[in-house]
Write a structure and sequence with these properties.
There is one protein chain. With 592 residues, the chain is α+β, with helices and mostly antiparallel strands. Among the domains are: 185 residues, no CATH class; 66 residues, no CATH class; 37 residues. The protein contains 20 helices and 15 strands. It has a six-stranded antiparallel sheet with strand order 11-5-4-3-12-15. The chain has a five-stranded mixed sheet with strand order 1-2-9-10-6, with no helix packed on it. A two-stranded antiparallel sheet has the order 7-8.
Length: 592
């Protein structure tokens, strides 16, 4: 029952408390002490009774990189914890928490919330599957909704009117046993591997022999009964006979039939490379745990999120690729609120909330309480404090006893100019500390920022020693990606989505670097990026192309792709000629 209890914990307030404590430790006095850095901010009085956070000393590049790396590492930890919990918070795994007995009042409330979420999700999935295009969308982006594990649990609860009954509990225990271990499976694989090495040439065995080795490993490692075992302790298996064993190849059949990529066809038309295993598997999404969590579960969560907001699914789905454009550590503005990005996923963007610090009185009494309605339709309290950052950073003092060995790779930028002032920002440590948003590309701006440390009463009051100093003017998301060169980390799908958003047409099979070069021609990119920034990114793209060319010369992948394209062209010409010959034995007059 330990796994069931753990799932119940991950769905309850305990997991949110753990996230809060992790962020509080990382951004509080404990995090600053582990870095070995001192505070570089001090509160001063400015013009018109304005409270100013003055930067006392500018840190050298190595310490500045250390500070940014600390924040990046903390964001990575939170991001991974959130996605570890997402698997257990999503159907069908969340249903295992309903098998826990003897729950406290808060745990019973968590179970009721899980039941309500299961019912809501299942009704939404059935509604989407009723339409062919949305059924295809689920098959492509949330294929697990077609799996037996998902549908059997959902159907059983639906038949029992979404109540916990002996039937639903029995099914949950069947899919999620009280004690589960992969030791028996690992022992079977080890036995099969050893048998294959001993009995096969080049460690290659036919499919019939592998099946027999599997059955034998099952008998030895799982179904083995001791003399003193009570009846029914070990399951019964099947017994192999001599007819079950074959040689290296099945009689009268060539071994190549088990290799689909070796198929060449029997006619002139089909004797080409148009039959490829990759083409057969291409329509199906990945089955890796990474894809399941980052893509499938986040897509389903985004659909549920859109339904709660009353959004049309077509409108919401058009924005699902926007969150995958935001990179970890990026500061964005959404609906006049500032957020610090945890990472990139399609559908949902995970953010650490950074409220403005503008309207708190000197004695730390709340001057005004503002309630901001987020996309989760929950009212969250936001506090504004009266502290400003004014002007650029002080000049860097050269310390000859601590000269960096090499230049920093991180883009060093001062976001504020002379006579510019902005409100200070810090992560507000109030649960839930991680917010989830659906973004709009046209309404999202990014900001350059620097990180500073603060001690004393203000840090104690806010629970955070890390303060963020942003730029006065934001920039479009595309411009921010190009300035930071984070655009090279985007997937081809995300780049295609960006091209479509800016109505830029290019070849469908254009390479990643080619698509980025098309985006560099956007007018707002040329207007907001300096020539030095554009030249640096183009040099990086040229270096990437050069690496790809060298890889193509040393390997055969690129050559194979070119040959496949040429073969496809010849095949298409052949098919077209045959079609013309059959349909028009003689060329029509006036045509060529």
């Amino acid at each position: 029952m330990a796994s069931h209890r753990h799932t119940l914990f991950m769905n309850g307030p305990g997991f949110k408390q753990m996230l809060w404590e992790t962020i509080s430790d990382g951004l509080g006095f404990q995090g600053m002490a582990k870095l070995g850095l001192t505070a570089d901010l001090a509160v001063q009085s400015g013009e018109g009774n304005m409270q100013v956070l003055a930067v006392q000393e500018r840190r050298r590049s190595t310490l500045e990189n250390l500070l940014h790396d600390h924040v990046q590492a903390l964001l990575s930890i939170i991001f991974e914890l959130v996605h570890y919990g997402l698997h257990l918070q999503s159907a069908p795994m969340s249903a295992s928490a309903l098998a826990v007995d003897g729950c406290t009042a808060p745990e019973l409330e968590t179970q009721n919330q899980i039941q309500a979420c299961l019912q809501e999700e299942w009704e939404m999935v059935l509604g989407l599957e009723a339409e062919a295009r949305w059924n295809d969308f689920l098959a492509k982006n949330a294929l697990y909704t077609h799996f037996m594990h998902y549908r059997e649990i959902m159907t059983c609860f639906e038949q029992n009117k979404w109540k916990i009954t002996p039937e639903t509990t029995s099914l949950i225990m069947a899919w999620n046993p009280a004690f589960s271990s992969s030791a028996n499976v690992e022992s079977m694989f080890q036995s099969m591997e050893e048998s294959t090495k001993r009995a096969s040439k080049h460690e290659k065995a036919s499919l019939p022999n592998l099946q027999c080795l599997t059955v034998r490993a099952l008998q030895k490692k799982v179904l083995h009964k001791e003399d003193g075992d009570e009846p029914g302790r070990a399951p019964d298996g099947i017994n192999l006979s001599s007819e079950d064993w074959e040689g290296a190849e099945v009689r009268a059949l060539k071994g190549s039939i088990w290799r689909p990529d070796s198929y060449g066809g029997s006619t002139v038309i089909s004797r080409c490379s148009h039959f490829k295993l990759d083409d057969v598997l291409k329509p199906f999404p990945s089955t890796t745990p990474f894809h399941h969590t980052r893509v499938a579960l986040n897509t389903m969560k985004a659909l549920r999120h859109a339904k709660k907001l009353g959004m049309d699914f077509d409108t919401a789905q058009a924005k699902f690729f926007v969150p995958s454009l935001t990179q970890r550590g990026m500061m964005v503005q959404h609906e006049s609120r500032f957020y610090l990005c945890l990472g990139s996923t399609p559908g949902i963007m995970y953010e650490a909330w950074t409220p403005n610090l503008e309207m708190l009185t000197a004695n730390f009494l709340y001057a005004e309480t503002v309630f901001v309605c987020t996309n989760w339709t929950k009212a969250l309290e936001m506090v504004e404090l009266p502290y400003k950052f004014v002007g650029p950073l002080p000049l860097l003092k050269v310390n000859e006893n601590a000269v960096p060995k090499k230049d920093s790779k991180r883009r060093d930028v001062d976001p504020l100019l002379v006579d510019e002032s902005v409100s200070a920002l810090c992560v507000k440590l109030q649960q839930p500390v991680v917010k989830e948003l659906l973004l709009d590309l046209t309404a999202t701006e990014t900001y350059d920022f620097t990180i500073h440390l603060m001690g004393g009463p203000l840090a104690e009051k806010m629970g955070s020693c890390f303060f963020f100093r942003r730029g006065l003017q934001g920039m479009p998301l595309l411009v921010g990606l190009i300035k930071s060169q984070e655009i090279v980390k985007l997937t081809v799908d995300s780049l295609s989505w960006l091209l479509a958003a800016y109505q830029i047409h290019c070849r469908k099979n254009a390479s990643k670097t080619q698509k980025i070069r098309f985006l560099l021609a956007v007018p707002e990119v040329a207007a907001k990026c300096t020539e030095e920034e554009l030249t640096s990114l183009k040099s990086l793209l040229d270096a990437t192309d050069e690496k790809n060319k060298k890889r193509a010369k040393s390997g055969t992948d690129a050559a194979d792709r070119d040959e496949d394209v040429e073969e496809d062209r010849r095949f298409a010409c052949f098919e077209f000629a045959r079609y013309v010959y059959l349909k028009y034995p003689a060329p029509p007059s006036g045509d060529c």
